[in-house]
């Protein structure tokens, strides 16, 4: 009889030492993907970004209107010509190991981030010097105009800019870090992390929130739960059943076809975590035939019907944007239709004519299908069928998203394991403007997988973020948009909203686009 009691005593001791007590409030959440790695610089995956917002803090953060607000920064002074920026950190900032946050940590974090992120690289290219002045102050001196310095430092997605200790930020950007020490509102528990099962975070008792109310990703990050468990449930039906049974508290993106079922449960609430919505992006490989030719890429514009794609995904009409040609999302200040073609209905004759111009001769087209994602799978199969009708010889291998993210880095021809296209789903933070839209960038070999290459588009993008005059920037934006429709680094296959779902005893969730859990209570 002694061993069971000893086991219970040991378990109780472990619970106390790990900060988990029965009286504590625990929030259990299911996000789009489970946590598979820890480095928000080394990976652009959304799950790493979500992890980053829990354990790290930002120098600036975007509010609900998309305005960059000081977060870790207390004071920011820019010279009259905008070529020098001086930043002073807030008092009382500390990392999870108890060490103070210093200007040197911020500078090292910016430097590491700027090696990987398109926004970081753009800022670095315009920077003459970045220097530590004292323990709390650093300076950025520009070598050429860059009108969006604070917006760059508030980068919230792709390789988001988070501040980590200098000792960790000194890790080469090509080497993934494994130490998640930050200064943010939650503390990661590495001993409880099991890939494919769960990741655990505890409230950071030493965190000092800003005094302003939380607004978007900015303002005071006041954590009111003791423990957060990020649970892996890749099957949408399983997650929905767990939410209805009260086994979990929140689902970031329930499958659209399950939303009506959840809404009929009086113990569940739904809301738009991302009010502007998402886009289905069709990413093309510009280095492999036939899409190394612009005519072949443009043929797809006349084979994609955005509404067909959204209907296949299962998005309700009330959550669809039936037609949206905008690269920077519809229903935003940067919406544009300049240069737009197609995307409303199939035009087989036009598509086939463009394929002939491109010299297409029935080569196999490999369309990688992330079948473990209901949205990606439905969009992929719908477009593949349309492309087949247009005369393309389609091969649609099924795989999971993790395999897609690995294979998409391959540059070999399709008969040697390469690829031609895949679908990804982006939110408004991923595509909000010519600076931050990571898949719009077309710098050839230095770009992201797919490797679009167009000097004119790159020059137009740069002129947009260098222009201080907002009206002139808007004029440049339309030129960027028109050129993008010629180059087609990716194709917008449909914009939509999907609702998040939570138990009715959870309060304080807000439309933050990125799922964050400060200000959230559990009754």
Automatic annotation (TrEMBL):
It is found in: Periplasm. PANTHER family: D,D-DIPEPTIDE-BINDING PERIPLASMIC PROTEIN DDPA-RELATED, PERIPLASMIC BINDING COMPONENT OF ABC TRANSPORTER. It comes from the Bacteria. This is ABC transporter substrate-binding protein. Residues 1-23 form the signal peptide. InterPro entries: Peptide/Ni-bd, SBP_5, SBP_5_dom. Belongs to the bacterial solute-binding protein 5 family. Residues 69-439 form the Solute-binding protein family domain. Its main location: periplasm. The keyword Ligase does not apply. Keywords: Signal. It comes from Falsiroseomonas tokyonensis.
